[in-house]
Specification:
- By secondary structure, the chain is mainly alpha-helical.
- The protein has two domains: 56 residues, no CATH class; 197 residues, no CATH class.
- It is built from eleven helices and no strands.
- Helix 5 runs antiparallel to helix 10 and helix 6 runs parallel beside helix 10.
- The radius of gyration is 22 Å and the shape is globular.
Length: 259
Amino acid sequence: MSSTIGWVETLGSLTLVALAVAISLWKRLHVEGSIAWAALRAAVQLLAVGLAFDLIFGSSTAMLWAWLWVAGMTTVSAAVVRRRVSGIPGVFLYALIGLAGTLAVTLGLLFGLAVFPFEPVTLVVLAGITLGNTMPAAVLAADTARSEFVDHPERLEGMLALGFERSQASEYVTSSSARKALIPQIERTKVVGLIALPGAMTGMLLAGVDAFDAVLVQLVIMYLLLGSVGLAVVAVVTVIAGKAFTQDGRLQQWVTDRS
């Protein structure tokens, strides 16, 4: 399929964005700034990515640059988790280890099963898809777990006072936080094909790939994403729960200090 999209068509696609901004201004919803900033930021970032793809992946050291790009994306993802979930000591390191671990497993399976060729562009694209799904889930998991500990420490203290072990007390938080963080990914997986067609399959169909082959590739990606999100969520809430208690079974200061 040949592309005929130019700047005119791209600017034309902003019609709905402009309409949303206009309605927000008219109804005084105060979200027009966020919408406009998101559209502008997306344009700048994607144009920069496109330029980087042209400059980097045509060189003889493309694979090295691809790995550096993946490392950068992983680090930025962990930084986003730290920025959005404040107050937890060491959250950046835990997020970095969790995201890097799940990314390594996902990429290893995708390339190991030969679903995609091991090439620089493919490496960066698949890493971006994986981190784009696992990072928001990790943020939600960490934020939910932190809120459960910080907002309701009396529940945990009460359980400890009644003789519950630390693992039993923290299980209350980890199970609830994991369920809440996994809801978006689980719901997207459950309705795939009924409400929306996923991006990888849609792109392959538009490129003329056989429909059944496109479906199989999308299934592999979807299952790996669901698993990677699940692993990231479990890792995050488990680590936070473990760091919420002292060695003698008391709650850490970051939990009890609400200042």
